[in-house]
# Entry
Amino acid sequence: MFELFTLNRHILETQRAFPHATGSFTGLLQYIATAAKVVAREVRQANLAEHLGTSGAVNVQGEVQQKLDILAHNVLAKLMVESGYLAAMGSEEEDHEIITPNDHRRGQYVVNFDPLDGSSNLDANIPTGTIFSILPRISSSKEEPNVTDCMQPGRRQVAAGYILYGSATMFVYTTGAGVHGFTLDPTIGEFLLTHPNIKTPDYGTYYSANLGNRLFWSEGVRRYLDDLNLDDKEHGKPFSCRYVGSLVADFHRNLLYGGIYLYPSDSKANPGKPKPKLRLLYEANPLAMLVEQAGGKASDGHRHILDIVPQGLHQRVPLFIGSRQNVEELESYINRYERS
Ligand code: AHG
Ligand code: MN
Ligand code: MN
# Structure
């Protein structure tokens, strides 16, 4: 039997390392864990509770919202406001930042989140996830919290994590002291430690990319991906291509097995004007903190993701993330074939 090392116990033991901790960071993480259990229940009941399908609305991303996108957003937003630990939050599903109403207790933290990642896969019962990023509030408690509280470089994150609604429900997070994975035991409603101190292999032989966009990528990216399919056993090539279409699921597999996930800019919709898809604040930054804590790397092809100064709440960036050697090899192809 797994030792009953629950997520709550892990969070509290992490808090003990900070003698002056007020307990609000601990409390915030526990609220996020509760939201995770509620969303997991709704995702798993979706087929039976008629939560599937689209809501008919289109979000700020220009994407059709699934009913569960909105449900997951509402669960997280409600619990975050009620926690009293938050000053503001940014959500993929809300055009603007959400400021904790002043008739609620406002705390010293900010959370950016993707309430349901990979949601276009839901109707096919394919794994999805929730991604969260925790930042310290920068506005003073005498000021009104505002969007600059949400728009801080990834290096400022105090914690990051994701919940993976896969064959099991997993909660994977870091507070800057390693990456730790917990698996939900639904019979007791607790996340139990199953993957302590995750380290990602320095080099992996899996790659995740939507090859349907290949013609619309830059030359360096195209050449890099073509070379992954060469017959070069010394470097583990040809690699295996694994692409779920849910970033959290692809990221999690590559984190454990080694490999690289790529979502480059592509010019598919705008010939000559390549555009990125994934969002900096609530997809790239939290996963970048996790992968660096696990010994890997996250880049936009030129810069560390965590060094990018955000220009907008829903800013998009190219994302190359996973095993360090794989990401650095991709960067060398971009440097060699793309004079910036
Ligand atoms: P979201 O469902 O939060 O909008 O994220 C979807 C993202 C990511 O999860 C996935 O890897 C990628 O979009 C898939 O994009 P393509 O369908 O363009 O490959
Ligand atoms: Mn997403
Ligand atoms: Mn989403």
Summary: The longest strand covers residues 109-117.
